[in-house]
Amino acid sequence: MKFAVIVFPGSNCDLDMYHAIKDELGEEAEYVWHDTHDLSGYDGILLPGGFSYGDYLRAGAIARFSGVMDEVRKAAEEGKPVLGICNGFQILTEAGLLPGMLMRNKDLKFTCRTVSLKVENAHTLFTNEYKEGEEIRIPVAHGEGNYYCDDATYQHLKDNNQIVFTYAEDFNGSRNNIAGIINERGNVLGMMPHPERAVSDLIGGTDGLPLFRSIVKQWRESHVSHA
Amino acid sequence: MKKVKVYVTLRESVLDPQGSAVMGSLHKMGYDEVQDVRIGKYLELVIGDSERDVDALVDELCNRMLANTVIEDYRYEIEEVVSQ
């Protein structure tokens, strides 16, 4: 399976993402600069964390108009897995590919530590290697991860099982402790925590690995007939 | 040519942690009269002469990029700029 790691000016988790795919998973990955206009050669799209365009105006507000975003939208429409982590999540909400918005953390602090997450939905292409309700430990590193949406949107997310990860404890003010959500179709996931930073015991844990394994497993299963 | 002053603020229904922190500090300084602080953004745009309706243009800019209407409201003022 071949992944595109989209690199915006100011991305800083692109190397970790590449490392996770290439070295820990043994799959293919390529860096793709944000002005690329063709993602047809890739099976999965990864939007890494960082501070694209210095978070000017709002986090993700400028990156979402990068040339590559039309292609990301197209990939999402084609049903390819699209994963946005941290700043990648912010870009996906700004682009309207996921509902809601990430606001400043309620205590105004940049929080950088490992937190406990609950897997709320283990029936997605990103989480099928986890158990439903499982508690996992994944690092967070953000100042604007306070997920906000209105009541109607929240109800919709809940009714459709689109809330994939929640924080075990509130620390940033996110609505109902939401840490990650998926689109209705189930192929676009945005999350603030960094699974790519939890792929080896050497760096403190491996709870992020099943997420990447899930994507690959699902892809292999759906492509067996074409092999 | 026109100068457009755009004010972007958090919606009333959205908590403003920065504003609350500033208000808390003002209260500590003794300014008990301050009842609310909301922090927003101020942008100045200079718009060249064009066929397009300026209001429609500014609304489009605000809705597409300058404000995120999920959590923010915007308002603006337009000033005529007399060329020197």
How does this model look, in words?
The complex is a heterodimer of chains A (227) and B (84). By secondary structure, chain A is α/β, with parallel strands linked by helices. Chain A has one domain (2-226): 3-Layer(aba) Sandwich (Rossmann fold), CATH 3.40.50. Helix content of chain A is 24%, strand content 25%. Chain A contains 5 helices and 11 strands. The relative contact order of chain A is 0.17. Chain B is of the alpha+beta class and 84 residues long. Chain B is elongated and about 50 Å long. The relative contact order of chain B is 0.34. Chain B has one domain (2-80): Mth169, Chain: A (2-Layer Sandwich). The interface between A and B is medium-sized, with 19 and 11 residues.
In angstroms, what separates the terminal alpha carbons of chain B? Answer: 11 Å
Average pLDDT number of chain A: 96
Q: What is the CA-atom radius of gyration of chain B, in angstroms? A: 17 Å
- Spatial extent as radius of gyration of chain A: 16 Å
CATH architecture of chain B: 2-Layer Sandwich
Mean pLDDT level of chain B: 94
Indicate the proportion of strand residues of chain A. 25-35%
CATH topology title of chain B = Mth169, Chain: A
Could you give the count of β-strands of chain A? 11
What is the helix fraction of residues of chain B, given as a range?
25-40%
CATH 2nd-level architecture of chain A: 3-Layer(aba) Sandwich
- Overall geometric form of chain A: globular
- How many DSSP H or I helices of chain A? 5
Percent range of helical residues of chain A: 10-25%
Distance from N terminus to C terminus of chain A (CA atoms, Å) equals 12 Å
**What is the string of SSEs of chain A from the N terminus onward?**
EHEEHEHEEEEHEEEH
As a percent range, the share of strand residues of chain B is 25-35%
N-to-C SSE string of chain B, H for helix and E for strand? EHEHE
Please identify the oligomeric state: heterodimer
Interface with most residues:
A-B, 19 and 11 residues
